[in-house]
Design goal:
By secondary structure, the chain is an alpha+beta fold. Helices cover 33% and strands 12% of the residues.
């Protein structure tokens, strides 16, 4: 009995030793030395771990930059000076990169959009959306409970007096968190050159849309008629901009001028948001008080 136990023990020791030797040899043969520049680049990054660059974090981004798969300018959180420092360290050129920001496809705050049911519960858009859509008359409208502002790590979103999220473009890094968290899919990412924008997602027909929100798109087609051919199409009662064509032609503010509700807007990073004069009147009608329930 003792002899059997001793034999088994010696066998296990021998097996362990053999495996250790094999692993040591394999480690030596397969070892890949990491480029020391990765550590240096990683230290120059903001360590926001936001994923705005398309990588899961700053370390993977540093690896991609050193490997040449990414350019330092792809980090939208770092300062221009910080990215220039990385480019200089690696001896690469900084590729020009247009700023991308989050945009909200809704202008229906409490002053212009009706609430048909009062929601009481966890202060969260996602929670409210599971309860009959949140209680807002417009099924597509912003619920105003600030999930987007809460999830933004860069203080780039705040709620205005009417319960609408406002994106601070200078702070926005296009990290995509607000896009993911919004249960109504109202946020999308756009380069700042996309100044023409439809601030609505309602698919209700004209009068039905207006019954719930004064600034809803009614699908009247005026913007589509006034825009360059093919730029704007009415789909399911909603104006939709073809941004592929937009990037190929000169676009001005003409399509917004006859919009009866101001649903289609012109967004300038420095001058702010412009609507048609008619649309402005619609937004002023209940500026200082929320619309009643029902």
């Amino acid at each position: 009995m003792t002899s059997s136990i001793l034999t088994a023990a010696l066998f296990m020791v021998a097996l362990g030793t053999a495996l250790a030797i094999i692993l040591a040899i394999a480690n030596k043969k397969l070892f890949v030395r990491e480029d020391p520049r990765i550590d240096e680049v990683d230290e120059m990054l903001p360590q926001a771990q936001c994923g705005a660059c398309g990588e899961p974090g700053c370390r993977p981004f540093a690896e991609a930059v050193v490997a040449g798969r990414k350019n330092p300018s792809d980090c939208t959180v770092n300062t221009p000076e910080g990215n220039a420092q990385i480019a200089e360290y690696l001896g690469v050129d900084m590729k020009p990169k247009e700023k991308v920001v989050a945009r909200l496809a809704c202008a229906g705050g409490t002053h212009v959009a009706y609430t048909r049911a009062k929601y009481e519960g966890m202060k969260s858009c996602q929670a409210a959306a599971t309860v009959a859509g949140g209680g807002k008359g417009c099924s597509w409208g912003c619920l105003g409970l600030a999930d987007c502002a809460e999830v933004c790590d860069f203080d780039a979103i705040f709620m205005d007096e009417h319960g609408l999220p406002i994106v601070v473009e200078d702070k926005c890094t296009a990290c995509n968190d607000c896009v993911v968290v919004c249960p109504k899919d109202l946020f999308s990412l756009h380069p700042v050159s996309h100044k023409l924008f439809v601030a609505c997602k309602s698919l209700a027909e004209g009068d039905d849309a207006l019954a719930e929100c004064e600034v809803a798109c009614t699908g009247c087609e005026k913007c589509a008629v006034d825009a360059p051919p093919g730029l704007i199409e009415i789909k399911n009662n909603l104006a939709v901009i073809n941004y592929e064509l937009y990037d190929q032609i000169d676009v001005d503010r003409t399509p917004i001028e006859r919009c009866p509700t101001g649903a289609i807007v012109w967004i300038d990073s420095k001058l702010g948001t412009t609507r048609s004069s008619v649309g402005k009147e619609a937004q002023r009608s209940h500026r200082n008080e929320p619309l009643p329930l029902g």
